[in-house]
Amino acid sequence: MTDPAITDLSKDAAARAATLLVEPGMRLGLGTGSTAAIFVRRLAQRVQDEGFALRCAATSKATTELATSLGLKVEELDDIGWLDLTIDGADELDPDLNLIKGGGAAHLREKIVATASDRMVVIADQGKVVEQLGQFHLPVEVIPFGWQATRTLVTRALDRLDLTQRPVLQRMRDGKPLLTDEGNFILDLALEAIPDAYELADELSSIAGVVEHGLFLNICQLAIIGRPDGSVVEL
Ligand code: 5RP
């Protein structure tokens, strides 16, 4: 390991394996979060070593800054148009490769980038693999205008689906409401289990103030799971 910024061997194993999916000239989506950041570092190393060109679109300001600082060319998604491949992390993934994302509050851009790609590949450590989604809180990005009414509607939807009685919390940072890159708020849904992710996704999407929820259903085609010994398994 030559990069002192990379300390998690499982995440690094997945990230290294994912760099091998990248081909010269590709249009590539770059995810957000600690695993995606390791991928960006490994990718930048490979591009520097092999000297090939890529066109990258990033899923957050943080990833744009990191990638640019490492010499990768980051463009607006609309300037690239469509992507060949997106590599991103996840908060949870189930055996059908359905995901919860948004732990880093970036799931709106992440979903746009992933669905504007021919292929989305998740990189993660074994701890992210679950039988059923829902132990990780489900992030929902909402418009600030009338957000408390939106929260009421979200709570009612959860009640209708018999999902949870725990309060829907607004995500805070440093004592203030967290603002996403798009200037929105995040509600975190503590659900414990999501028996029917498709039903919940439909309910949430039908609420006016909801911009996007963190359920990624039928979007990911491959998951690369890293292990501390440097090996990986593909799901
Ligand atoms: C950000 C995300 C991340 O991909 C997710 O939170 C996983 O992050 P990490 O790799 O740090 O565990 O969805 O919105």
From TrEMBL:
Residues at which substrate binds: 32-35, 88-91, 101-104, 128
Enzyme superclass (EC): isomerase
Organism: Paracoccus lutimaris
Function: Catalyzes the reversible conversion of ribose-5-phosphate to ribulose 5-phosphate.
Cellular component GO terms, alphabetical: cytosol
One GO process term, biological-process aspect: D-ribose metabolic process
GO molecular function, one term: ribose-5-phosphate isomerase activity
Residues at the catalytic site: 110
UniProt-listed NCBIfam families: PRK00702.1, rpiA
Keyword annotations of the record: Isomerase
CDD domains: RPI_A
Pathway terms, separated by semicolons: Carbohydrate degradation; pentose phosphate pathway; D-ribose 5-phosphate from D-ribulose 5-phosphate (non-oxidative stage): step 1/1
Record Pfam families: Rib_5-P_isom_A (PF06026)
Subunit structure: Homodimer.
Protein EC: 5.3.1.6
Reaction catalysis annotation: aldehydo-D-ribose 5-phosphate = D-ribulose 5-phosphate
Descriptive protein name: Ribose-5-phosphate isomerase A
Entry-linked HAMAP family: Rib_5P_isom_A (MF_00170)
